Amino acid sequence: MAPTTFRIGGDLEVRRLGFGAMRLRPSDDEEAHAAHVAVARRAVELGVTLIDTAHLYGWGANEDLLAEALHPYPDDLVIATKVGIRHTTAGEGWRHAGDPADLRVQVDEALRRLRLDRIELLQLHRLDPAVPIPDQVGALRDLRDEGKVGRIGLSEVTVDELAEARAVVEIASVQNRYNLLDREYEPVLKACEAAGVAFLPWRPVAAGQSGARAEIAAVAKEADATPTQVVLAWLLAHSPVIVPIPGTTSVAHLEENVGANAVRLTQEQYDRLSRVTATQTP
């Protein structure tokens, strides 16, 4: 049976099925706002102990909503957030922001919005190509040493980038895109396994595709589960360092996701799912 918890950084224990809060936003529509608050609160009621957010998600609005919904936080709840990106009106609407002085300001802003004295897991959302990696993670190391940050994570990195960062400071987590149908970052996952680093796959469910795959649908029927639950269960079985963070704005969908904890795949079912690829036809 796959372990149900993981110790991020070796000491911060969380349940292995977390919640990605990216889609939650404050709203002037009272009903919509209340619905998003309800999702965050229901996640905690269901036993989720890791919630992932970021400055990028509504430029702080997501962090504000989580604080409104959940503060004062339960003792076992970890709110992980990400810095390293700033809003801009040009291009894609964002820019890298890995300058050490700016990272320090971003962390202070996140602490204020989340109403925290310390961020237990702070992740660098993207490495800034204009700033040397040792300078970026070194700034986060300094913030950790000052007590503002507990553990440091990275997002969207390669094996070499992870190694370079680990030469400067302990890295507790990596958050890369990964799911049953998209395993581009398998080498990064393996590097995390070797180092005992938590691997938080974002987009852990291939939206709109899982249920269309005949093999996934077949295993779901056998396991008396939904295709979404099956692909999440596969992730939990695939590696002990994987901590999926599926997100949603629906309480029903949230409950479905968390229900993946109860799905037990046989070895034969796991092997069948492992043979499914993104290029296979339904």
TrEMBL record:
<dbReference type="InterPro" id="IPR036812">
    <property type="entry name" value="NAD(P)_OxRdtase_dom_sf"/>
</dbReference>
<dbReference type="InterPro" id="IPR050791">
    <property type="entry name" value="Aldo-Keto_reductase"/>
</dbReference>
<dbReference type="GO" id="GO:0016491">
    <property type="term" value="F:oxidoreductase activity"/>
</dbReference>
<dbReference type="InterPro" id="IPR023210">
    <property type="entry name" value="NADP_OxRdtase_dom"/>
</dbReference>
<dbReference type="InterPro" id="IPR020471">
    <property type="entry name" value="AKR"/>
</dbReference>
<dbReference type="Pfam" id="PF00248">
    <property type="entry name" value="Aldo_ket_red"/>
</dbReference>
<keyword id="KW-0560">Oxidoreductase</keyword>
<dbReference type="GO" id="GO:0005737">
    <property type="term" value="C:cytoplasm"/>
</dbReference>
<protein>
    <submittedName>
        <fullName>Aldo/keto reductase</fullName>
    </submittedName>
</protein>
<feature type="domain" description="NADP-dependent oxidoreductase">
    <location>
        <begin position="16"/>
        <end position="275"/>
    </location>
</feature>
